[in-house]
Amino acid sequence: MKQNTLYLVIGALVVVVIALGIYVYREQTRPKGVELKIDDNGISIQEN
Known about the structure:
Layout: H1 2-29, E1 34-39, E2 42-47
Antiparallel strand pairs: 1-2
Transmembrane segments: 6-25
Keywords: Membrane, Transmembrane, Transmembrane helix
């Protein structure tokens, strides 16, 4: 039982590290400038 818990904790940590890496990569590769979004709520302009 203790070994299964250890595997579960290690697996959860691996998932968190991968998710954080993907988030950081997407934030760094996002183009800089102005973002224009048109949807059901109308038009929104956001500066990156």
